[in-house]
């Protein structure tokens, strides 16, 4: 909708904007539009007379028929209506153009030239200019007026801070809303990209402040929207954007931080409950698991409700969740991580936590409510024992073990094992464990037979690799140079010496290079001497290469820390430009150097010439920063062929963005022929050029130019070849997981494309249109030629060694040929070396199944012989089925399938599990059927069917009985690892299910359910089996239930606080009472220490009478003071609790005796010896001597641990006796005097 000038002014006034065009008077009259008609010159109204007001003389009459009479019918003239408008402007502010002021007349002429209007202007003495406009259509008039107002107004820049959530509405679908604003107002509206949005820092125009980084609540990020254009149009655009912003709801973000780690998983399960609390408002929840915080964002009202609900839920879990800790072997921890944690949480509402692999602790913690913990513990034990786990120790010293692990990782051997054995999980040590452990193990988990197969395969592999590895130390800085300059020679090491060279990742800055004598190569020699000879040769050659490029040095530059940012540049751009793309430089800045005492340094390490160059450039950057001469407006221009522009720019600008992010430069492309077309020139049929302009710091721009020209040079050398290779050889040429094709691509710098599955037109589904027998090689000319040659050589090799043989076997024998888990077919593959494919398209329907064998002639003949030998063993087969309820399946199959194995053996079937495979098939968990299928020899099938029917009949006659067992005793009855429970079930032949177990509800209601109507469901244990066995098991469970504890008896005794320490004897007295079944609760305890403080020394010393006069004096201080002098007054009530009266009476008697003894201890002596050398003799072995002295003297003796003072407490005589005994003890151990 277009607005008139008056409406535009009125709108601006409402928003507080100044009126840019005030009128002459107090009020501005509305513009008048008058439809004009052709004027009549004879009309007195249109042209009034200028004569006096005297009446004019009557004109003489004329005959209507005379010669003066005009024609009676006048010619009609079609007139075009003219629409007018006017507006007034006070002192127009004309913008300057090219340094010159634009005049009003020039502005009017430009408008009249562009639109079909006529404009007249008049200025009065108040310098107000009125513009009169005439036009044929209202549309032209409005456009002209808008253009003229823009020309008469200065260009302004307005900043509108818009909430980030409204930006999408401002832009609109595919930019439609923003385009509408721009078209309606003619202004420029700029919205910064997401990467450039300030982090919530609002400008001063809106009067708000950004939240602190640590605040829990965050206001919505404000995005500055820039509006540039003539003042009235800019204000109009601002108003339109404000209307869009006002129509959007208020947004808010709030974070719930520091959620305890053991509570966070429980919180995540309540997500649906939290979303319900939003009550229809838009709310989004985001989890930051490492920080243990949940971000709630969306509509303000909904965010507040949801955040408060989350906090309240956390508090509830803090009070209701407790933990239980158990110990499990470290290898079983593998089964309690990842998806297993989620399974246990969903099954038992409990969380399991295990120590990290680096932590030697074997502790497992189960979190949950007290009610759920038994079920959680059962779920943890079930999961921990769900698979067989084997620890496979890697042989040799730990250094060799690390080499073996490195080689396995580099060839992705773990994925190979996973492909060959999908039912087995393989766990290799973590990097931290590899660095610290003295013994390295590989953990293998799964069914025992499958684990044994993996162990066998790993053992065979290690047997080939052991002794075939070597490490050589080469400075990591020259690894890239060696790989680049000697790529062909490194390849020849493998071809000529069968040695693979593995350089560590450059990011790790490791110097150890691993050499492996390839055990998987067909030309590998089993001789250790031969392996060592080839490895020694390669080591020698690598050291020669390293010596050739060994011009490596380090240089430390002293640069103040404040200039480090200038050296690094935004996002590391300046540092990337200094390092360059192909150099082997390592530059560490400040703290990265590792010198904690000095961070004002930069360490440069690499080839001497690169180090010198980098030091010079760093010094220049620092000097520029110091002089504030860092200029990023340098630009450089050059031409490239237009055909390479798309490749340089990259998909969705990825190439240019990479230059921008790594070097901080701006890259623009322009076509020269566009300028020529604008100038009217014809485009020449030569190579079309595109102009490249790079803007940024000079060093960065030069580096960007270098990289672009280098890429163009590579593209100019690019070619392609299409090879005709039969489709049957593609898989072998690609290699496992694309290994061979990737190696060719990396060695020769090419791209190799094989066709995918064919479409309806017979062409491969790839970007390039390839036929099924075509392979595309694209890259540099030399690389394409080399890759083509090697690929064709490999094709010839495959043709010679990849013979194909197809034959049929009876379908009934396929399961025996495959074996359980593919064990039989894998064994044939390993022994013969052939590749075997079994056709699965007929799904067992036909009588014959096709088998395809690939390999050498000898290999395929051996494989065929082995397969046919197995097929001949399978005689005529029959099939049978019977319906067995799903609840009986587990009982029949038994633990680990042992029950089914024993059943087949009893019926005269094979005992080998491979031969038993496929004989009896139970429906899977996801199948709704209860039908059990049998397939095999008719006689055996009939026997197995009869045996199954007997077992099912017995199971159907089973009963379920319930017995009451207090929930607190369930754990004791189950036993550690279910030991007691398994023993009971094996002896009685029943199944016992405790509440919370997975199969508890599957047992159905017990027969004696009516007897258990008043029993707590948590105390009901179900027993299933034959009636007699169930009754026996129930009786045994009742027998094992411990009776409830008897009623507790209490008594109260008052004990003076000052005697507390003397009576308690550091807790020994309370332990004595517990022997009588009595526990003590005290109403109060003394606050002062148990050992009295020694009084000030009075200088008195004590010496032995048998000391000689000339013997060196040994000072022994002895002081005696009154006991309980500073002791606390008052009594403490001791509440005695016991199960019988006799115990309570005995305890009361002992307490009264102890009080009497404490009252008799009236003195305290402090015996200070010169040193502590005699203390061991005084104390005796395990305190035996002190205990003897206490018994003999009746005094309490305390030997100080931090000084040489012995404190003696007792009666006066007991204290003196104890002192004399101690002094005698010390003197007996003195050395003789001379």
TrEMBL record:
Entry keywords, A to Z: Repeat, RNA-binding
Pfam families: KH_1
UniProt xrefs under InterPro entries: KH_dom, KH_dom_type_1, KH_dom_type_1_sf
Keyword RNA-binding (UniProt): yes
Start-end of Polar residues biased regions: 198-209
Signal peptide: none
Occurrences of domain K Homology (ranges): 154-246, 466-544, 551-623, 632-713, 717-796, 801-872, 876-953, 957-1042, 1161-1227
GO molecular-function term, one example from the UniProt record: RNA binding
Chain intervals with Basic residues compositional bias: 680-693
Region (Disordered): 1-47, 188-216, 671-693, 1081-1106
Top-level taxonomic group: Eukaryota
Record's protein name: K Homology domain-containing protein
PROSITE patterns xref list: KH_TYPE_1
Keyword DNA repair carried by entry: no
